[in-house]
Amino acid sequence: MHWTIRSLVLALLAGLAASQLLSELPLIIKSPYMQYWIDASHVSLPTGAWPLFWTRRSVGWTSYIQVDNTSYQWSGEYLTTRPNLTATTVTPTRTIFSFVAGPIAFNATYLSPLDPTDLVRQSLPFGYLYLDAWSLDGKPHAIRFYFDITGEPLSIDAFDPVQWNTTQIENALYHSMHLTSKQSMTEDSDIVKDSTLYFAMENRPDMTWQSGGNQDDVRNKFVAGGSPLPDTVDPTPRTIINWPVLSFLVDLGNTTQTSKSVCLVTGLVRDPVIQYTTSGSIQVRSSYYWSAYNTIDDIIQDVIAKFDDVRSKAIDFDNTILSDGGAISSEYNDLISISLRMVFGAMDITIPKFGDGTLDTSDVKIFMKDIGSSSRVNPVEVIYAALPAILYFNSTLAGSLLEPLLEYQNSSNYKNAYAAPDLGIAYPKVLGNSSDTTELALENCGNMLIMTLAHALKSGDGSLLYRYYNLLKEWADYLEKNTLHPAGYVSADGENNPNLSNLALKGILGIDAMGKISNVTGNSADASHYESQAKDYYNQWEILAVASGHITSVYGDVSNWGLVYNLYAAKLLDSNLISDQILSIHVLTSVVAPKFGFPYDTNDAGKVKSHWTMFTAATLSDPSLRDSLIRMVWQRASLNDSVAFPTTYDPTTGSAITGVARHVYYISTKVSCLFI
Q: Is the whole-model pTM more than 0.85?
């Protein structure tokens, strides 16, 4: 069977100016620990709200504009005088706020560079805030900008002491701050305690600075319209709650417009970033970008110098996506625009060091944190849900995500005959997971076989298939014994009824994937066996799962149904296994959907799964039905309830259940058809 839904091919990776404010807006998202948001439900967004970490802890980043000696705070809650917000625009790489402050209009743009094909640029944990201002009356006005940040991104414990410094380099000046006593690879409430915070600005004659000043003193002096900052460092370490700040002030003088953007750079740097337990050893791994730089000075100098180029590439990137996305809807574009940063911001792209201390760029491994739910490492079901976006932008990245899972389970440290659900629960420590997870075996074996094949087909690199063939075969054999009549197994959603139709289908498609893997690797006898077995099981599955004109949730129970999102894997792999009849029979047009979407399964009717809703949309040939599913997800994203991106929520009220800010919220519709 050949899948032809060209409209989907042009539709998925789309973003557009937000048609209305969504519940949470991304600001800068560049790593698992550099995830800054703004609460769009705030009555005076963003002027009366602090930028937040996804856990809703304040980042402590404040920004002001002063026009003709009148000060306005446009980020943070410190000052009550605020500019008027006139527009909010969100694209895949940028969030843009447009303001009017007296006779001056200005745009504040948060930029999270996305370049998945350039591992150096993609792995850099730095983002930009840049401002452009102009006079509304054509007359010159005195304009000053002020920025500062506290140590709140460094620890959940505000009584932790911090220390700081300020460094002048060739083209820039940067502040740095870190805990006085760093704790390597240690998380506390999802904030890691071994980071260094950077705040940097290009050298310019109208810029002054201060580091370590008390936030009240420094801000009050600016608001009062006093002198420039003193260009001094207060050397005395203090606790975070004593509010030392890193600050910059830019005084443009009397002007009608900014001649070039006022650009601030911020970063959150860790080195090493991952502690990886391999066979017989513990390996510490650094971010990939260190392969291109020797010092932090080199990094910041380059980040500053390349701002214009990075901005230009980001705009081109956005425009390409926006152009393609118009084929679906503005709601669809909104979802992509607020979600794409989350996919890549959940990853650390890493490399190890040789014995002489140089970095080995031939050994790229990517680790993903289960943001929004736990500190699990490379959670299989989450990678599976995010896989379409990863395959679309750079299919090689999928292999680097899967390799640590395959390598660990191919070692003597792992004894189970089925695939593991993750590599442990202690990100950024990768300890492995050899616990008894039998109940998840069908889900994980199916996911791993499907994903490993999908990576090979899209990238053209079959090395994982050859290197781990015996391991993959072991998982296929497990599915062969257990998948047709699953009993004692649980789906990724927690459903544990015997004979779950959707779970059985996942396993059958996993066996079918093994047949293709065997073909690719030249194991013809195995290929014939698995292909025959998958076909036989699928034919039996159709008889067992279809009743009264729809696919039942549980074999033979005509009263129940669900979103058969596992059909998506057949499209991903361009499988000939699934019949046209199965794709066309569903109950979605004959039942009334709650406001925020269909439950993923009527046996668990109080839960919508946004990611599986979108996987289901990818399987539908009816554009109007597809778009209605997208619209339901968008309605939840638009809910004014101060919660960032729950993947699971109530279908009637939209109340979040799990997965706040989880990156699998990224919509999978377009990517599902990339193999056509």
A: yes
